């Protein structure tokens, strides 16, 4: 009973926090929203001189935000490791041996 | 897979799929695409090859080999990026561009970074799918 009640309360608190975050979002399509700042201009006009990449997406992903991509690849790597650790059977062992 | 048609056709299509993936990875800084897109295409080719020729695929690309490739690519990517960040360099291909504009070498280290990301993505998808296929049989 206590576990159920505590999990319900925890979930409600989480929902409240997330919904508070949603209400803080700027209105859709607003001209002076925070994403529409000088960063976009800089990426569009100066990325070729800055990085030597003619693909702006590649310039942002690998150069301006390169550290982000490193962590992204690490997350992918961790997912692979966890799946292999949890699913891989040892060589020469069958299901019956593992279950006994 | 026992189908003869699939086996014979696959011999040619797999090479084309690999070539397309490698092209997308190598031209990641010149045209749309990059490491993630190219790596996904290469992993699709690897999975197709594994489904048609399981024995040969297991012999050439064992779990150990794939894992070593992923770890090596991650290490190379991390060391190159850390070098750039520690030196405060935003620029990776600034000087290379002046020597060879609009070419593969024009991106400087972007080429290596894209290749590393491609290896990581392809290896991860391939090894995960291989595990799921193994459980299916």
What does this protein look like?
The complex is a heterodimer of chains A (100) and B (137). Chain A is mainly alpha-helical and 100 residues long. Chain A has a domain at 53-89. Helix content of chain A is 72%, strand content 0%. Chain A is built from five helices and no strands. Chain A has helices at residues 2-23, 38-51, 56-64, 66-87, 95-99. Chain A is flat, with a radius of gyration of 24 Å. The mean pLDDT of chain A is 82. Chain B is mostly helical. Chain B has one domain. Helix content of chain B is 77%, strand content 0%. Chain B is built from six helices and no strands. Chain B has helices at residues 4-26, 35-52, 54-60, 63-87, 94-99, 110-136. The radius of gyration of chain B is 17 Å and the shape is flat. At the A-B interface, helix 2, helix 3 and helix 4 of A face helix 4, helix 5 and helix 6 of B.
């Amino acid at each position: 009973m206590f576990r159920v009640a505590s999990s319900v309360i925890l979930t409600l608190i989480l929902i409240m926090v997330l919904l508070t975050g949603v209400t803080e979002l700027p209105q859709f399509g607003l001209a002076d929203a925070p994403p529409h700042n000088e960063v976009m201009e800089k990426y569009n006009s100066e990325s070729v001189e800055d990085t030597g990449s003619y693909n702006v997406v590649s310039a942002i992903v690998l150069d301006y935000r390169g550290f982000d991509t490193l962590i992204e690849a690490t997350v992918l790597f961790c997912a692979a490791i966890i799946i292999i650790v949890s699913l891989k059977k040892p060589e020469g062992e069958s299901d019956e041996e593992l279950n006994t | 897979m026992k189908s003869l048609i699939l086996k014979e056709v696959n011999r040619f299509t797999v090479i084309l799929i690999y070539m397309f993936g490698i092209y997308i990875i190598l031209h990641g800084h010149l045209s749309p695409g990059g490491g993630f897109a190219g790596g996904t295409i290469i992993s699709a080719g690897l999975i197709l090859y594994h489904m048609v020729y399981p024995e040969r695929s297991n012999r050439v690309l064992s779990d150990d080999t794939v894992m070593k490739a992923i770890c090596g690519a991650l290490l190379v990517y991390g060391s190159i990026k850390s070098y750039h960040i520690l030196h405060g360099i935003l620029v990776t291909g600034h000087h290379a561009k002046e020597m060879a504009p609009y070419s593969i070498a024009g991106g400087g280290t972007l080429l290596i970074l894209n290749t590393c990301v491609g290896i990581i993505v392809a290896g991860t998808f391939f090894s995960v799918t291989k595990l799921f296929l193994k459980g299916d049989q």
